[in-house]
Design a protein that fits this description.
alpha/beta; 13 helices; about 45% helix
Length: about 350
């Protein structure tokens, strides 16, 4: 499988060096999230400091931005990186769209479908000279003059992946996307019982072969060079599980395991603004279902035992302290990446069934 790493929240003047280090260690893909930073700006720094690794957003929040804005930014990054960019889109929940971004909220699945169609219509108009005439329920694009059109691209098309939890969007990925970025708040059982069947269902609806489709998954991974680092990462995962588990958007994952009551307990704490106590509500049994925790030596086997056949790419954290080139520490980490890469990919590929 492909092995990715997130370009973390390092100081801005260290991001380029961190991207270079990630590529030197052999990661197949460098990923930028969008929490307190703009994912496009983060990957611009990575694009200018790397030459091989794929650069992907996971994810760029779609709806506060016009598809035209995202089309330009994506094309710019694709050109800058010589065709190494992959666009990952996410919808975000209603409260954030309306109250954090001050944007209009509408049914996210149908709107995201139209969003992707608009992006590809814009890119197609630039590459072929075809008149831009995209008109839908949520978006309309009918003006594109030569002055504002980038020259036709000689690079491969920009892959479009989406993040999805509910069945509609999972099927949408199977229908029209190049990949699905499964949220870390997912379990092997949910991937096997809900995600893969719905990806295949979406593909079958349009008679699509899933060869080349990428499923990025693996839940939370807690690893490190010492027991203390692993335990710290495990507790961080516990809090993230509590945070996501408190929202109704992710309730289907909990309900799949008959853990729906956990959502109510977490929401009660948030209503009292007891944020620091969220993790205390998540028992070890829930944590261990969402999170694979192991040292570098044991991680590939433990991860494969839970996720083999359910993912095409997995995200690993960089070591907490920098690795000196040629050191034993670096050799151990390189060996970890190689062993993770040897884990077989999903069974989703081939003819949709």
């Amino acid at each position: 499988m492909l092995v990715e790493t997130y370009l973390g929240d390092y100081p801005w003047n260290q991001l380029a060096e961190q991207a270079r280090a990630s590529e030197r260690l052999g990661f197949d893909s460098i990923v930028a999230s969008e929490i307190a930073r703009d994912s496009f700006i983060t990957l611009t720094l990575a694009a200018t400091s790397t030459t091989r690794a794929r650069l992907a957003t996971s994810v760029t929040i779609a709806f506060p931005r016009s598809p035209m804005i995202v089309a330009y930014a994506s094309r710019n990054l694709h050109d800058l990186s010589d065709g190494r960019f992959a666009l990952g889109l996410g919808t975000q929940v209603k409260g954030h769209i309306e109250r954090r971004f001050s944007s209009a909220f509408s049914p996210p699945g149908p709107r995201l479908r139209e969003y992707i169609g608009a992006l590809r219509a814009i890119w197609r108009s630039w590459d072929t000279g075809e008149r831009l005439n995209f008109q839908g329920k949520y978006y309309s694009f009918t003006l594109m003059t030569p002055e504002f059109s980038p020259p036709p691209s000689e690079l491969p098309p920009i892959p479009v992946h989406i993040a999805a939890v509910n069945e509609y969007n999972i099927q949408l990925a199977g229908e029209v996307c190049d990949g699905l970025r499964v949220h870390p708040f997912a379990t092997p059982a949910y991937a096997r019982d809900v995600i893969l069947p719905n990806v295949r269902k979406g593909a079958a609806r349009v008679g699509r072969d899933l060869a080349g489709f990428e499923l990025s998954a693996g839940g939370f991974i807690a690893t490190g060079e010492t027991d203390e680092e692993i335990e710290e990462a495990r507790e961080q995962a516990r809090y993230r599980i509590a945070f996501y588990g408190s929202t109704r958007t992710y309730l289907p994952v909990l309900e799949h395991h008959d853990w729906g009551a956990l959502n109510e307990d977490l929401r009660a704490l948030i209503a009292q603004e007891r944020w620091s106590e969220l993790g205390s509500v998540v028992p070890d049994s829930v944590l261990d279902t969402f999170c694979v925790a192991a040292n570098y030596e044991d991680l590939p086997e433990r991860f494969a035992a839970q996720w083999q056949g359910l993912a095409d790419s997995v995200t690993l954290p960089m070591p907490k302290t920098p690795l000196e080139p040629g050191s034993e520490r670096e050799a151990r980490f390189l060996h970890l990446i190689q062993r993770m890469r040897e884990i077989p990919r999903t069974h989703a590929h081939g003819a949709a069934t």
